[in-house]
Inverse folding.
C-alpha cells in the first residue's frame, strides 16, 4: 500500500484515478483548489483544499501526507482559452508545477511523480504518433505541458527525481459504476457536448469543419476511456515504486474516429436524432491525432479495454444523472 497524493484530484481524470487507487488499497489524499474541479468528484480518500500556486499550502499538504507517490493533474487544459489567456497557463501549469516539484524535492525527495501530459505536445503531425517524435506544440497549452516535461527531465537528471509523463490522447467516458464522470465548466469537449445536445435539443451544437483532409471531412481523434487512463496511472505508479526509471508514454487506443462517426454513435446510443450546424474549422485543430501506444503496452503491459461504444455508453449514463 502506498501513500498517494492526487494533486488536482477533484477534476475529471484525477477523480477516476483516485477512485481506482483507493479500490486497490492505496491511501489516497486529494489536494485541489476547486478552481476547475468539483468537490463532489473528490470523494475518494482525504480532501485537502489548497493551491499549487501557494507554496505554503503545497508544503503543508506534503508534510502532512508524506507521499510515496504524487499524481499531478492540476492544470488549466482548454486549448482555446490558452490562446486567449496564455498568462493563466504559464502561471497555473508551469509556475504551479514548479512550486509542487520544488516542494517535493525538499520535503519528499523520494516521492515518485506521475505527470498528466497530452498529445498536444506533438503539434500537428500526420500518422500514428510515437514518443520519439520531436515536440512542436502549436498552442500555449501544449507548450506549457512540454515545458513541464522538460522540467521533470532536468530534475530527474540533476536530483534523481523519478517520474513518468503520460501523454493522453482524447480522454472520455465515465466510471462504470456511475459515481463520477466528466464535468467541465464550460464544457468544450465533443462527446459531452453531443450528449448534452441529445438531452436538450435547444443546446446549440456546432461541428467544426467538414473539409478537413480526412475521409468524411471531419477531424479524427483517438478517444480513450478514462478508466483505461486510470489503469495506466496505477501501472505507472507501481512501475516507479518497484524501481522503474523515468519515462514518457503515450496513452491512446491507436484507433481514430471522426466527429461524424462519434455523432452517429451518440444518436444510436441516445436513440435521438441530433440537430447541429456545420461551421468553419476551429483554429489550431489538427485534422487527425492517433496514438501509437505500443511503448506502454510493451513496458507496462497496459492495453485499453474499452472501445468508443463503451465510452459513449458510460458517458450517456453519467450525463443523465450527474449533478448540475
Ligand atoms: N468538436 C466539434 N464541436 C464541438 C467540440 C468539438 O466539432 O462542440 C470537434 C473538434 O473540432 C475536434 C473534435 O471534435 O475535431 C474533438 O474536440 P475536443 O475539444 O473534444 O478535443 P480536442 O481534440 O480539441 O482536445 C483534446 C484534449 C486537449 C488536448 C488536445 C490536443 O481535450 O486537452 O486534444 O489536440 F490538448
Amino acid at each position: 500500500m502506498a501513500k498517494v497524493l492526487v494533486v488536482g484530484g477533484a477534476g475529471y481524470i484525477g477523480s477516476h484515478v483516485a477512485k481506482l487507487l483507493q479500490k486497490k488499497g492505496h491511501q489516497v489524499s486529494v489536494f485541489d483548489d476547486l478552481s476547475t474541479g468539483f468537490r463532489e468528484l473528490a470523494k475518494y480518500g482525504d480532501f485537502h483544499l489548497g493551491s499549487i500556486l501557494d507554496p505554503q499550502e503545497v508544503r503543508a499538504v506534503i508534510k502532512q501526507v508524506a507521499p510515496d507517490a504524487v499524481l499531478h493533474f492540476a492544470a488549466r487544459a482548454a486549448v482555446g482559452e490558452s490562446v486567449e489567456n496564455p498568462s493563466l497557463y504559464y502561471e497555473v501549469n508551469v509556475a504551479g508545477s514548479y512550486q509542487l516539484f520544488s516542494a517535493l524535492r525538499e520535503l519528499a525527495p523520494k516521492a515518485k511523480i506521475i505527470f498528466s501530459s497530452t498529445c498536444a505536445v506533438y503539434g500537428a503531425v500526420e500518422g500514428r504518433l510515437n514518443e520519439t517524435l520531436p515536440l512542436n506544440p502549436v498552442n500555449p497549452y501544449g507548450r506549457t505541458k512540454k515545458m513541464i516535461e522538460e522540467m521533470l527531465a532536468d530534475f530527474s537528471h540533476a536530483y534523481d527525481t523519478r517520474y513518468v509523463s503520460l501523454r493522453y490522447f482524447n480522454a472520455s467516458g465515465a466510471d462504470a459504476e456511475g459515481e463520477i464522470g466528466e464535468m467541465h465548466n464550460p464544457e468544450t469537449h465533443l462527446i459531452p457536448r453531443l450528449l448534452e445536445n441529445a438531452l436538450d435539443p435547444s443546446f446549440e451544437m456546432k461541428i467544426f469543419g467538414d473539409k478537413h483532409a480526412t475521409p468524411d471531412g471531419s477531424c479524427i481523434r483517438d478517444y480513450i476511456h478514462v478508466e483505461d487512463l486510470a489503469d495506466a496511472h496505477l501501472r505507472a505508479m507501481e512501475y516507479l515504486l518497484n524501481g522503474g526509471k523515468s519515462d514518457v508514454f503515450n496513452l491512446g487506443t491507436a484507433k481514430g474516429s471522426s466527429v461524424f462517426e462519434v455523432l452517429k454513435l451518440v444518436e444510436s446510443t441516445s436513440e435521438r436524432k441530433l440537430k447541429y450546424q456545420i461551421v468553419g474549422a476551429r483554429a489550431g485543430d489538427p485534422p487527425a491525432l492517433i496514438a501509437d501506444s505500443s511503448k506502454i503496452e510493451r513496458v507496462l503491459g497496459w492495453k485499453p479495454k474499452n472501445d468508443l461504444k463503451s465510452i459513449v455508453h458510460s458517458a450517456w449514463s453519467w450525463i443523465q444523472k450527474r449533478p448540475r
